Amino acid sequence: MNRLKIAKSISTITNPPIITIPLFLIICAVLSFENGSFDVSKFIVLELISLVFSSLLPLAIILFWAKKLNTDRDISNRSDRYMPLIVGIVSYFIGFLICIFLNLDNFLTLLLLCYSVNTGVVLLFTTQWKISVHTTGLSGPVAALILLLGPVGSLFGILYPMVIWSRVLLKKHTLSQAICGGVQGFFLTVLEMYLFMGLLNKPIYGMVSLEMSILFILAIILTPVLLGILSYVKVSHSKRVFYIAELVLLLGFISFTPIEVTAIFALISTASILITSLAGKDFIWNEVIF
């Protein structure tokens, strides 16, 4: 399988309505464990709500709109994305309202509200700039898994540099669009979860602290962001600058963060370098790393 086919496969699997299926399945399963036992009925209800309003309805409008406009399923033209994004906002918000009405789990309730708000932010970006919906759609549920599972949830962050590579290689986005989609998705989700929890008086117990969540996010995004900056800003000896910066960041994580945060940073950094080596010389990060 050549690189283009691999990139297309990654892009297809991580399409937002599709990647939410396995990630929300994990989220709903975690939320259904109570007092050491698994509540099957709660899981079924949460999974149905998340499946319909975070996946099936958004996916249906994407497929319908792509067919109507006779375009690709990524809806590559920026101005053609407005309608699917608006429908997504409405779909997530309806899911949120149903959760409120049925008094369902607070975590899923607020997460669907975050999805609606974050999609609104993406829509605002899209009016001027084609920010990556793929990396935004990935970072939201990964941020939720970080809040739920800490370092275990952070492991899914390894998908972030993979999606960046696939979207850039397929020429669906620039490097900056792919990186920024993930950055805003990660931070907005964790900040909004804590904000809405207070504003709506929807307490969530056992959630990873805001400070620790931000540290895990930094561990995931810093190497891709650094590679992005060095790819655009031409500096002398960029390879040397990259590896020195990586060493400084590693020492900083070792000195000031728990070992599990450092481990995530090392994992994402290693994955970013490995992906670049496999991507070949035509991938923009190659000039910085090798």
Give me a quick take on this structure.
This protein has helices at residues 3-13, 16-31, 40-69, 82-102, 106-126, 133-149, 151-154, 159-169, 175-199, 210-232, 238-256, 259-279, 286-289; strands spanning 33-34, 37-38.
What does this entry look like structurally?
The chain is mostly helical. The protein has helices spanning 3-13, 16-31, 40-69, 82-102, 106-126, 133-149, 151-154, 159-169, 175-199, 210-232, 238-256, 259-279, 286-289, and strands spanning 33-34, 37-38. It has 13 helices and 2 strands; from the N terminus they run ααββααααααααααα. A two-stranded antiparallel ribbon has the order 1-2. Helix 2 packs antiparallel against helix 3, helix 6 (133-149) crosses helix 9 (175-199) and helix 10 packs parallel to helix 12. The longest helix has 30 residues, at 40-69. It starts with a helix and ends with a helix.
Low-confidence stretches: none
Main sheet overview: 2 strands, antiparallel
What is the string of SSEs from the N terminus onward? HHEEHHHHHHHHHHH
Number of strands: 2
Beta-strand percent range? under 5%
The secondary structure category is mainly alpha
Whole-number average pLDDT? Answer: 92
The N- to C-terminal Cα distance equals 24 Å
Report the radius of gyration as a whole number of Å.
19 Å
Helicity level, as a percent range? over 70%
Kindly list the characteristics that best describe this protein.
290 residues, mainly alpha, two-stranded antiparallel ribbon, 2 strands
Topology (elements, then pairings):
Elements: H1 3-13, H2 16-31, E1 33-34, E2 37-38, H3 40-69, H4 82-102, H5 106-126, H6 133-149, H7 151-154, H8 159-169, H9 175-199, H10 210-232, H11 238-256, H12 259-279, H13 286-289
Helix pairs in contact: 1-8, 2-3, 2-6, 3-4, 4-5, 5-6, 5-9, 6-8, 6-9, 8-9, 9-10, 10-11, 10-12, 11-12
